[in-house]
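Quiz preparation item.
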């Protein structure tokens, strides 16, 4: 989805950006490892049973002012037009044009004009901060923004500056598909969490995303390699690859968000829910004093020390590193499920792209099948949008089966809408493999939230990872720097308003 520092799609929000979940009383239950209720979801019907975010559940407390939003004169409100969108209006739409492109948004805009008579100004770009920060500063923001990519404007920063609309009005409005239900009740549980700031959903993370390792089925078949389930087996493949002048692991070196996918996945799977909660809740022993954190970072550093990295990967952008991986110059690469879309032009027809969960360290709390999963690609509505009624109605329609299916057709990905994709939509092989991994994971899914809550902390940890991958620091120093970032975030009084149960 690029999400986060890139996450979501091309670069996507790195921070994982991508995600959000319900903070209403009906959705806001805490859940631990034992929660068994699975969520049925189909994409190309019957494909998957996507799990409840059993490791994801988070609760946040906090208040804030009423963001009802009334920047444009409203037309008559009806069940079909709950925000009173006026015909003949204009909507300013900005879309992060990363791994998912922006053709899906143009299809949405065409349908919006046809049905509501609202024309759109469309901007597709990867320069989100460059193009939009001056507009936010001048009090002239767009109406709705896909705020993603390496140049994302951090959601927590926008929120603290009072620039984001609380999306409760959208989430509590009637569903397009079933007006007897609220929009929030049609979404996969857990998928609103990453959009929470102080108890309010201010970002709608739209795409159902998974993160982990990727490899070429063709290369693995040629080399006789099997998908590694343990870290020892992973290292054995890296060693064999190196002996054949192939890199073991590639990562998008200029954007250390990506290597943190591997690092943080290893920590989560090793230490389980407690290890993740310690980090998200800014525990004084989140990193220094955490056996899981020490094991995870030492495992990644072993790849560096033994020379298993793809040569040059530390200095490459995301697309440069991914393209070399597509050229069979590395066995593995870390990424989210936007990878296949982003690399369509660079991927050989017979590459056979495959997704897999992070292999296990010894005595891990989670099973091999556990994956980081949730929502990505955050859409926001600025408080000072000129046409708030149309922006809110646009967001409501994004969460309809018609628009969810349009997205799947154009962007080869799933959305956070339960059963939101028509049965006839066929996904590409790499994306299909993420569907199968989600099904295998059952309720063993997890997701960190510190990246959305504390972007400065996330950036500091990424900077430490960049130094580690270049062998300028060792694991002990990485742990110290990561803990220092946690401790700094914990001193901010605002951090008390975010808490994970």
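Solution:
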């Amino acid at each position: 989805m690029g999400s986060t520092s890139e996450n979501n799609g091309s670069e996507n929000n790195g921070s994982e950006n991508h995600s959000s979940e319900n903070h209403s009383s009906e959705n806001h239950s805490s859940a631990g490892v034992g929660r068994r209720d699975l969520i049925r979801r189909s994409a190309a019907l019957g494909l998957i049973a996507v799990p409840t975010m059993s490791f994801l559940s988070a609760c946040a407390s906090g208040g804030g002012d009423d963001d009802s939003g009334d920047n444009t004169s409203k037309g008559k409100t009806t069940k079909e037009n709950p925000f009173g969108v006026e015909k003949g209006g204009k909507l300013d739409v900005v879309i992060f044009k990363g791994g998912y492109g922006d053709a899906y948004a143009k299809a949405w805009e065409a349908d919006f004009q046809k049905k509501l008579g609202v024309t759109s100004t469309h901007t597709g770009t990867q320069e989100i901060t460059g193009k939009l920060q001056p507009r936010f500063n001048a009090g002239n923001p767009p109406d709705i923004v896909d705020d993603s990519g390496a140049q994302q404007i951090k959601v927590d920063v926008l929120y603290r500056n009072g620039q984001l609309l609380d999306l409760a009005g959208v989430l509590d409005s009637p569903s397009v598909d079933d007006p007897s239900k609220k929009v929030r009740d049609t979404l996969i549980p857990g998928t609103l969490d990453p959009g929470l700031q102080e108890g309010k959903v201010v970002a709608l993370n739209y795409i159902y995303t998974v993160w982990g390792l990727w490899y070429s089925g063709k290369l693995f078949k040629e080399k006789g390699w099997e998908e590694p389930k343990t870290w020892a087996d992973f290292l054995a493949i890296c060693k064999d690859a190196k002996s054949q002048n192939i890199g073991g692991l590639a990562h998008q070196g200029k954007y250390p968000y990506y290597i943190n996918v591997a690092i943080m996945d290893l920590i989560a799977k090793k230490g389980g829910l407690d290890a993740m909660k310690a980090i998200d809740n800014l525990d004084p022993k989140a990193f220094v004093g955490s056996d899981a954190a020490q094991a995870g970072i030492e495992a990644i550093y072993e790849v560096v020390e033994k020379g298993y990295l793809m040569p040059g990967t530390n200095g490459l952008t995301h697309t440069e590193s991914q393209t070399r991986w597509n050229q069979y110059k590395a066995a593995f690469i870390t990424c989210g499920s936007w990878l296949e879309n982003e690399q369509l032009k660079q991927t050989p027809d017979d590459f056979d792209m495959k997704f897999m969960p992070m292999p296990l360290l010894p005595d891990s709390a989670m099973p091999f099948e556990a994956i980081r999963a949730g929502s990505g690609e955050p859409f926001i509505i600025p408080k000072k949008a000129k046409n708030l009624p149309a922006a809110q109605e646009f967001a409501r329609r994004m969460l309809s089966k018609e628009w969810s299916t349009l997205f799947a057709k154009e962007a080869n990905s799933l959305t956070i809408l339960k059963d939101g994709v028509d049965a006839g939509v066929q996904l590409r092989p790499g994306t299909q493999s993420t569907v199968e991994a989600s099904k295998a994971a059952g309720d063993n899914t997890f997701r960190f939230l510190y990246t959305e809550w504390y972007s400065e902390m996330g950036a500091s940890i990424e900077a430490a990872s960049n130094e580690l991958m270049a062998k300028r620091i060792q694991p002990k120093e990485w742990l110290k720097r990561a803990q220092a970032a946690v401790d700094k975030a914990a001193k901010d009084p605002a951090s008390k308003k975010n808490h994970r149960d």
